[in-house]
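Hey,

Quick one before I head out. I ran the complex with arginine overnight. Inputs first:
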Amino acid sequence: MSSKNIEKPWAGRFTAPTDRFVEEFTESVSYDQRLAHYDIMGSIAHVNMLGKVSIISKKESAQIIRGLKKIAKDIKNGNFKWLAALEDVHMNIETALVADIGDVGKKLHTGRSRNDQIATDIRLYCRDEIDLICKQIDAVLNALLTLADDHVGTIMPGFTHLQSAQPVTFGHHQLAWAEMLMRDRSRLHDCRKRLNLLPLGSAALAGTSYPIDRNMVAKELDFDGITQNSLDSVSDRDFAIELTASASVIMMHLSRFSEELVIWMSQASGFIDIGDAWCTGSSIMPQKKNPDIPELIRGKTGRVYGDLMALLTLMKAQPLAYNRDNQEDKESLFDAIDTVKMSLIAYAGLIPTITVNHETMYRAAASGFSTATDLADYLVVKGLTFRDAHEVVGKIVQFAIQHDKNLSEIILSELQQFSKLIKDDVYMILEVEGSVSARDHIGGTAPKQVKAAIKRLRKKINK
Ligand code: ARG
């Protein structure tokens, strides 16, 4: 429909119809229609309050609410015609309301502005999305804990600098990811607390002269309270930045996890396999089975960082109060949320298909002198200082390299050439199992500790 046929709610002071290009350039309904449900929720709470405090009559309020509910149904069933000429989700709904119930619909916008309306809509949307993302994090956590539980005693090389460092258990390694996701979840909870305040009532920027009851609206919409400054309320988007920053940290964690899966599934490593249903093939190389899901998640991480940068830059240097710049917050926010949700769904599905190649991992853990630190600690217990012990073991490693042996393959008399303190009880600690079991404290890799950590984490999730 052309702009000539559609009366814009703000058309009063204009003498010429909006240029077609301007309509296209300024519209946001093509993407903010996803906020319709929240927009109507906010409108119903607002109108309910207007009726209760007698700014409009109870009858009018009931009529408007009925009309809004019908529009909500139409939208849900796909029977609503969105018009770009009506700019955004707010004006589309308001215009449809007036068309439907007549002039009484024009009372909906009493004492509010699209500025506090959109601020309310986005907060409601973010709050729901946070709750969803937290549930999805829990699903990934459940999968990780199950995998960890299956592998409390499975030995793998632990790395620093991607060089074999000390043996750890595969279960312990999974719990590192679980800890990160637990922090991600608590970051989202923090963000939720800060954003769960009602901005409505701030109107365009200065508040409204009607005797509104903001607390009543806040209560109906399940907000914990109301915002305290109207100028801030209509222009603030730092809650969206915080949420996108939290999404970026989640993606950062998932990208690290992804990188490991890709490395571990490579032929060069061969530590794990991912189920066929969660991999894809090559159109030219018939033998290929590729870890595309982790790769895509690694790639999508950059995209979410981009969304965060876009939002930070959008808000940079904006004067008070509302500016149209703010309309540009939505696509980045939506994209970050959609991407993090898809990535979490992917991992909740993929993790249970991971199978572990015990032998390859064990062999890798036993090579690379991964128990050298244990040998140094052994010498410390026998009376050497750690620095001297470090030196002695360095020499033993050099000897092992020259003779192409693992530490546990060097015979006692050879070891004793480096230190008389070494006795035949040394072999227990040179084995990877001994090394792992010795790290028996909270946070350590001993199977007993991993089991206890899984129990602790299980109690914290799913609530
Ligand atoms: N579509 C706008 C946004 O997303 C709604 C607020 C518009 N306010 C205005 N005065 N033009 O920010």
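The beta strands are 155-160, 163-169, 197-198, 225-226, 272-273, 355-356.

Talk tomorrow,
K.
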